[in-house]
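Subject: for your reference before the review

Hello V.,

The reviewers asked for a structural picture of the protein, and I figured it would be easier to keep everything in one thread rather than splitting it across files. Below is the amino acid sequence we used in the manuscript, unchanged from the supplementary table.
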Amino acid sequence: MKRLIYTTILCAAVGACATSGPSSDTAVSRQSAALEQTPTAELPPKPEAAATYLVFKPAPAVKRNRVTIDYAIWGEMLRAMVIYMGPSERTRASRPEPMVGTRLIQGHDSAFRLEGNKIFFSGLDDELKSALTEYKIDLERVGNQVDITRLNRNEQLAYWLNLYNAITIEQIAIKYPMQNPSTLKVGPGKEPLDVAKLVTIKGVPLSLNDIRTQIVYPNWSDAKVIYGFFRGDLGGPTIQSSAFTRENITSQLDRNAREYVNSLRGAYKTRNAVKVSRIYEEARPFFFANWPADIKNHLIRFMDLEVQVEFDFTLPIEFQIYETRVADLSGGEPFSAKSNITSSDIGSAAAYNLPASALRMMRELSTKVENLKEQGKLRGRVIIVDEITLPSREEEDRDQVK
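And here is what came back from the structure prediction:
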């Protein structure tokens, strides 16, 4: 397993490594008219990071920096852990039937449980959990060996997102089975997962909240960075089975953004309001100062046209109830009842011994996949990649996540 924990650093630049209902036309026209309103008051400035965190302010080298952090091992781990759930059907999952012989419902019962990819926490053994911890430590070491702020901006963003997601998954895996990541008490001080200082970079102890609100949100202006943070629960953005890299970060964030915005946990309409996720409440001062016009424009930016027509953006924006249950198959419940899940259930040649609640989720997923196929919404893609060449400086600048 040792071979799984080393992150490769390629230093190709001198000094890079430091030593320390309506028709679509009508609906879209109405949305556009509603969003043309401009604020009458001057907008507040975007919040800046506290002084302690200014050491992480991006300052890419003027000379093109060829330093690359290789996340191949993290990608392997994600491929082993992430269960693809497909795009949202924009219908609430029906309430599950109680287990035979009881009135109790085991596992997930959220209407959003079939949205967003899941982590196979119930299948992570002690060896893989140890590998997760060692990999997190390895990423922390990289942050202290390399001056992250001098790297290409996409390289910097990939580092922070991968570090954040590795910490989140590792901490949940250690405490699993558990139901709500937000209630976890971790670290020496037994603090909530989001605020516990779990890594130290450049002498600064960092929490998950610090990485989001003191490093990434203040220093990147494109709101799609919101969707790079996997929070380990049903309500948050999805996680892909591949690591973020300098090359793929723009397309992967776009993919995450579209999945989330087009899902019910991202936004849905009631008779009197547009209900949006509470993740936008935290991000509001950084990306949506002209509220609610900014959030409406943001949603429209990533919404499929067929989803846009469901909405009336002249309605007020309200926050929906956030789903805090762990993003796994069984709802984080102890393995009191197990059942064999076979290739007919998950499309794999292998058979796993899983909680009965996880088996039920996989059967629900199988039904969802068949529905998506019938609707033509689940298609494979063939991507042809020619010989890889480094982009020009102009191309590199153009492709940066701002």
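For the response letter, the relevant points are probably these. Residues 41 and 163 are 39 Å apart (CA to CA). The chain is about 35% helix and 10% strand.

Happy to draft the paragraph if you're swamped.

O.
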